[in-house]
Structure formats: C-alpha cells, structure tokens
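tl;dr need the bound structure. longer version: we got a ligand (aspartic acid) that a collaborator sent over and nobodys looked at where it sits. i said id run it. heres the input, straight from their email, havent touched it
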Amino acid sequence: MGWKIIVNASKLNKEGINSSILSGAEKLRRGESALDAVEAAIRSMEDNPNFEAGTGCDVNIGGSILMDASIMDGCTLRSGAIGAVQGVKNPITLARWILENTNYSLIVGRGAEELAKALSKKTTSIIVDYDARTPEKIMKYNKALKLLKSLGYLKPESNARRNAAKAIAELLASNRLENLKEALKASELGTVSACALDEKGNYASGASTGGWTLTIPGRIGDSPLIGCGAFADNPAGCASTAGIRGEENARLGGLTRMICDRMRIGESAVDAVTYITHYVENRLNLKLMRGTLIAIDKHGEIGCNTKHESINIAAAYMTHDCSKPNIIVG
Ligand code: ASP
C-alpha cells in the first residue's frame, strides 16, 4: 500500500489546498513519516492568510487571536495539542513538539506560550511574538462589533478591546445569545485539518484553528481535543474534521474517534464518514452545512462527506501515483 494524504479547510481556496497537499506529499515522497506530512500540510495552511488557522485567524471579542491545534500518531497513539495560545506562528508544530518530547497531551494558555518561547530559542521551526491578525480580520472584527452595537447587544460606548470582560457581560445580559450567531452571519468557522498514511503503514492526523470572530477568550473548540478534531490508530486508520462547531462535536463525544471505531471493525472510510454525518444531523437535528469529515481507512481508502450546503469549503487528496492533488469538494 503506497502513501496517501488528504487535506481539508473550511475556506474554499484551491490554490492553498494544492500547496498544502504538495507540501505534505513531498514529505511522503521522500520517505518521511505520516506525522511529517500532516505537520507540513497544516503548516502550509497556517501560513496562508486565506485559511482561518495561524496567520489570518478570526479575532476574538478581546481583539486578539487564540489558537488551538492537535496532531496524533496512529502508530504509538501519542498525541500533542495546544489550546488558547497567542503569538505562536505555527500551532501545529508546537503540538507536534509536545507529542514527541513530553508525556502530556494538551497544554493551554500561558504555559504553552512560555514553552513556545523557550523552544523558539532552540529551533527555527517555532516562531513566537507573532501577530496572526491580518488587516482583513481586524476589519471583520470591527464590523462585527459595530453590528452588535447597532443591534443592541453591546452598549454604544462599549470598548471590547480595552475591557473584554465588560463586553462579555453586556452580551450575556442581552439575553439574546441564541440570536447572536445569526446576527454575526459574517463569522464563519474556519478550521483546517489533514490525514496521512505513509509507506510504512503508519497513520497520522491533525487539525488547527482560531475558532471564529468574537468568541469569548479562553473558549477552546474541538480541534485540540483528541477524538474530536483528529484521531489516528493504525489498526483502524485516521480521521480529522473542520467546519463543525466544536461544541457540537464534543456533545457527541468525538466524531473522529467514532469514525475510527467504525473503520476498526471493517467499515470503509466512505461509509464511516457518511454514517457519522447522518448520525450528527439526526441526533443534533442540524445540517452540516460546512462540516467536513475526512478519513483514511485501514485499506488506505479515502472518505470525505461531500454534500455540503456551502461553497465555502474545500477538500482534496493525493496518492503516491497521482501527479497532482485531486479536489473532492470545492
Ligand atoms: N471546529 C472549529 C471550532 O469549533 C471551528 C471550525 O471548524 O471552523 O473551533
């Protein structure tokens, strides 16, 4: 069985997806591991401001960006993840460092930032003191705040950047939180994720995100939660996800773990992602408009749910015998 790689991102950008897949594929072509491929593919999307992971993430209510990421090795079942981290250019690389060099699986907030600072002095792959906010995302943030003021969620004099706690209190006091997402139509979810199988038969998967515009600082989504954002286990395969509200994924106890459980007992990747897509929709009574699940099963077959009700999503794959990435959705 040769190598395979599959990448998704909830922002349609074929060029970005192509470069991401090619960076992962290059690793596999050189005989490097599935973990190397997943890290490279996700790094490439984190460095591309058209995806909402790393550079270009959405800005939270306090005006900053806090990022989550995870990566898992299907051979050893070891994983590394970071949550609510600011100023680190490539969260996926910090997560990989945790996987390979510690006995921890998830480090969040200041601790993770301090770890990154220490590592940045030893390796060039970890860059800190990095501002991931792009002018577009700052504009989107300002527009969203203006909208909330015009709709009465926030007081006209409210200054969320200076006093996030006060702005959060005003939002909570508005008693209309149910309508908040509707009001903020512009705030799309924007995670990226990747799965890979290498020549040695090892699987890996990972995910990276910045949440979405105006989240409460400290909120952590599904991307860094193992079994939610990503899961890999050689006897089963691997799976990862993007575009699903993290809270919905967590309510069901982890969709990528569920997909792998089905593949472990012989279901194909396509059937497993299709089953879980229907399960989510029926059980939570919602439509996975952009929610994308990708997987590689134990026979090396690729699965991706494709019936999205949004064009703002992309997924693609590449195998050792392809000369270029194949777009599945997008
Ligand atoms: N799942 C992500 C989160 O909840 C958002 C996304 O997928 O776009 O943080």
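gonna send this back to them w/ a short note. The CA atoms of residues 49 and 56 lie 4 Å apart.
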